[in-house]
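Complex 437.
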Amino acid sequence: MEKQVYHLRREKIFQQMPDNSIALLTSAEIKYRNSDTEYPYRQDSHFYYLTGFDECESLAVLLKKKGQNHFILFCQDRDPQAEQWTGVRVGVNDALEIYGADEAYPIGEASKRMPELLAGTTIIYFLVNNSPEFDKKVFSWVKALGKKIRSGITTPRQFVDFRQIVDEARLIKSQDELQLMRKACSLSADAHVHAMKHCQVGMYEYELEAILLKEFYRHGSRFPAYSSIVATGDNACTLHYTRNDKMIKEKDLVLIDAGAEYHHYAADITRTFPANGKFTKEQQAIYELVLAAQQSAIQQIAPEVPWNKAQETILHILVQGLIDLKILKGSVATLLEEKAYLPFYMHNSGHWLGMDVHDVGEYRVQGNWRPLKPGMVFTVEPGLYISADNMSVAEQWRGIGVRIEDDIVVTEQGYEVLTEGVPKSVHEIEKLMKDRG
Ligand code: GLY
Ligand code: MN
Ligand code: MN
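Predicted structure with manganese (II) ion bound:
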């Protein structure tokens, strides 16, 4: 995105910071998978949201002093020898030009310059507990300044979690962000279609995962937004199953929960389909129940509808359906009251979605469930999971796990489904799989 986009985001944040306050954000640390082998670098979402800067060893400072807003970026400076190994860096000069910093310095100068930046501020914002190492640094900088207090310098006395400002901004997506999310979602939807089309009994779960990843990468997504779940048969009842190492069997359902990350924005899609292309009677009954719950919950989405409406709708429909199928016995009201659905449906209706798959933002405000607003993006993802060893249900239902998950943006008029490119009715799925040859 243009540097102006980040400038405007910072201005919005500055408006909520009182005069003589400072916000400090550190870049993400490099994480090691084993020995000295690194995981692919992923910038901290808050840091990226306000800077667009994608390098490690960086520090962003938003300083509001005497009514003036300053954006100061500390980063690794150019170093041909180091760049020979790890690639080209932006460096201090281009940080000014390309990223719109008012001042930029080598990261090695941060501790030296911090007392001067902190002097005279009264509030310091940072992501408390995001990085214990960084928390320590922040306290050490304030402590160092405290030594100068007799010379008349004021030091920050209030340490405030920056999330309370930035999370709220991130919760409402701009048109620029929605464009990226549409792309993340549509390319992920295409990948799901490919996986459905190429699924064959006898393949391994990881072969379907490979198809998904290939499609993600082919369309410019460099990483999945989270570890892909390809769960066949009873594995689908393990909510975060990621071993993906079992052979796909004839009568299995295949549950795929996978989404690409595209330019730092996540998609999160789940589809469940029969490995051999044809649902059994029991699989279809459970599947259509989950689908009915999901579709009803989606149809109710509109501005001002409270967040928990989807979960309530889903619970009612699932419980009624489980009674109809004789899996639960009793009245809907009593079974809801007793939470009798928990062995079969044990998670929430969804979560905010954005730069993080489980994105930031409160679900309640002042004790009440949050009313939806245009620009909020979230998932709707009911499921039913009947464990293979649940002896309290008739045998024909055991081992069936179904989840259906779509990504939705709230609009002025209602909602837009960002992931509708993957079929989800029984008829559409069976047709797609029949045509695969
Ligand atoms: N893929 C994680 C989730 O659905 O929340
Ligand atoms: Mn999800
Ligand atoms: Mn998911």
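The chain has two domains: 3-170, 172-434.
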